[in-house]
Design brief:
It is a single chain. The chain has three helices and four strands, in the order E-H-E-E-H-H-E. With about 110 residues, the protein is α+β, with helices and mostly antiparallel strands. It has a four-stranded antiparallel β-sheet with strand order 2-3-1-4. It starts with 10 loop residues before the first strand and ends in a 7-residue tail after the last strand. This is Antibiotic biosynthesis monooxygenase. One of its GO terms (molecular function) is monooxygenase activity.
């Protein structure tokens, strides 16, 4: 489970996917399968969560990595490049963005 703390040294990546309600379930299945069988097994992976809005037009993915380089190495693998091409067909757009935690509140 992701842990959000200000003093964390983990690299946070938030990826948003925009799609239609007709492809939401297919995209969510593809993302879950990618995490279960590949992404979560990559060096530096810490944790992730998938979120879908009630209109099923957006999925938000929050993931944590030990370093920026670990995340980038996973993206560069042949398997992930192939998966991303398929994911791209299921959505209008997706964009992973790296963030630093500035504050966290309980």
């Amino acid at each position: 489970m992701p842990q959000i703390t200000k003093d964390s040294t983990a690299q946070t990546v938030i990826t948003t996917f925009e799609m239609t309600p007709g492809t939401c379930e297919d995209l969510m299945e593809a993302l879950q399968e990618a995490y279960e069988t590949f992404i979560s097994k990559q060096p530096g992976f810490i944790a992730a969560g998938l979120h879908v809005n009630d209109a099923q037009t957006r999925i938000a993915n929050y993931s944590q990595w030990e370093s920026r380089q670990d995340f980038q190495a996973m993206l560069r693998t042949t398997e992930m490049r192939e998966r991303n091409r398929k994911i791209n067909l299921l959505c209008r757009s997706f964009e992973p963005v790296m963030y630093d935690v500035v504050a966290a509140f309980d």
